[in-house]
From TrEMBL:
Family label: Belongs to the fuzzy family.
Name of the featured protein: Protein fuzzy homolog
Keyword line: Cytoplasm, Cytoskeleton
InterPro entries in the cross-refs: FUZ/MON1/HPS1_longin_1, FUZ/MON1/HPS1_longin_2, FUZ/MON1/HPS1_longin_3, Fuzzy
Organism: Aplysia californica
Location (main, coarse): cytoplasm
Ranges for domain FUZ/MON1/HPS1 third Longin: 287-401
All copies of domain FUZ/MON1/HPS1 second Longin, residue ranges: 168-260
Compartments reported by the entry: Cytoplasm, Cytoskeleton
Acetylation as UniProt keyword: no
């Protein structure tokens, strides 16, 4: 079984801060951690930058941040993984640490032992990033936040705007099963990194009726803290706001019933869209098992591995997610340009708009049209020549349906 280590050490001194892991792997002994840091330091002392290396059964990637901390990713096993995937994990881990601890505190570590205790606040989110194949969403690899497409979203937007105004903040969103149903304009103005990390942060939370969490915005406000307040409206449905010092959690909690009681029936209807995640008004081909649809302009996506609500067991649905993840990673990182980020390079000599892969158990097809990217998992029964046409028709169905917006 493949395993993955994520190691954090201080720059220069190489003092270990934390090690997180996933998979059937043993705890790394201190001499191994020391050696991994030492080879990186050796290269730096000789004016060389060591980014990655590979052994017979492992791939290792290093990255230093702000001359303060070095993050090391070690992938063990025979599974396919590429350097850019591990580097993306390190970047997301650093951003997660900024989100929950603050950039200034990460730059200036005065007491390592205290820092090791305090940085534990980031462990649940980091562990969520490491559990890539187990996640019910794809946003950690696509760089786009996942949403639920619902015709009721427009009506719910009015309730959201009123509640956000009462919280005296422009930042708010409504979620169903951890996916965005609606958000304010300012929420959509957050960077792709911030949108994705906030959604993954929600997956790392333990269930509760409400919470008040201090956060930093890695791109918009990495040194000034804000408060993320979340409120459970019903099972699997929450409303979030990002506020300043006021109002208090208890004050806003008292307003929940006043603002949302009239929306209960509509919220229930939206909740029922899961796990399909898009309305019945959009019909898809019977050969489609799952898909990832991304709007690169808005960093918004919708995904599904149960398009017909077939009641498949969790093992089969997980297999579909893994197949889609593998296909996305193989064609996007190596052929079609890279993850959806503001920094993604557009300096290419030509653009690949279509790619497909055929397996014995399934088939996959990717198609890009303007800002839209669609990655489709098909059953093996579909004729290979038909996949492109079905992909284009599916994309058109989503884009042209005026009752939803992606």
């Amino acid at each position: 079984m493949d395993g993955l280590y994520l190691i954090c050490v201080t720059s220069g001194s190489g003092l270990p801060v934390f090690t997180r892991s996933v998979g059937n792997v043993k705890q790394l002994p201190f001499p191994v951690i020391g050696s991994l840091n030492a080879v990186h330091m050796f290269a730096a002392n000789h004016e060389a930058e060591l980014k990655s290396t590979a052994t017979e059964d492992a791939r290792i990637v290093w990255k230093e941040f702000h001359d303060s901390l070095v993050l090391i990713a070690v992938h063990c096993g025979n599974g396919r993984v590429v350097d850019c995937e591990l580097e993306r994990l390190l970047d997301r881990t650093w951003a997660a640490m900024v989100l929950l601890y603050g950039l200034e505190e990460l730059r200036q570590i005065r007491n390592v032992e205290r820092f090791k205790r305090e940085i534990k606040v980031c462990h649940p989110l980091i562990d969520t990033l490491l559990r890539r194949v187990e996640l019910p969403v794809f946003s950690d690899v696509t760089g786009a936040v996942e949403g639920v497409l619902a015709s009721e979203a427009t009506a719910l937007q009015n309730f959201l705007e009123a509640f956000v105004e009462a919280a005296d903040t422009p930042y708010g969103c409504l979620l169903s099963h951890g996916r965005l149903v609606g958000a304010t304009a300012k929420w959509w103005d957050l960077s792709a990194t911030e949108l994705v990390l906030l959604s993954l942060l929600g997956l790392s939370f333990s269930p509760c009726s409400c919470r008040d969490v201090p956060i930093y915005l890695p791109d918009k406000s990495p040194t000034v803290p804000h408060r993320l307040m979340t409120f459970k409206l019903m099972a699997h449905v929450e409303v979030w706001v990002i506020c300043g010092p006021t109002p208090s959690l208890s004050q806003l909690e008292m307003e929940i019933a006043r603002f949302w009681v009239a929306a209960v029936d509509t919220l229930h209807q939206v909740r029922q869209i899961h796990p399909r995640n898009f309305p019945a008004s959009i019909d898809v081909d019977n050969n489609i098992l799952g898909f990832i649809l991304i709007n690169a302009a808005t960093h918004h996506s919708v995904t599904s591995v149960d398009v017909r609500r077939e009641g498949k067991d969790s093992g089969e649905l997980r297999g579909r997610r893994e197949a889609l993840r593998e296909f996305y990673g193989s064609v996007w990182d190596s052929q079609m340009g890279g993850p959806v980020t503001e920094e993604a390079s557009t300096d290419v000599k030509h653009t690949i708009t279509d790619s497909y892969t055929v397996y014995s158990s399934h088939k996959c097809y990717a198609h890009i049209c303007g800002n839209y990217q669609i990655f489709v998992l098909f059953s093996s029964k579909i004729p290979t020549y038909a996949m492109r046409n079905v992909c284009k028709k599916t994309l058109d169905a989503f884009v042209k349906d005026k009752s939803v917006m992606i």
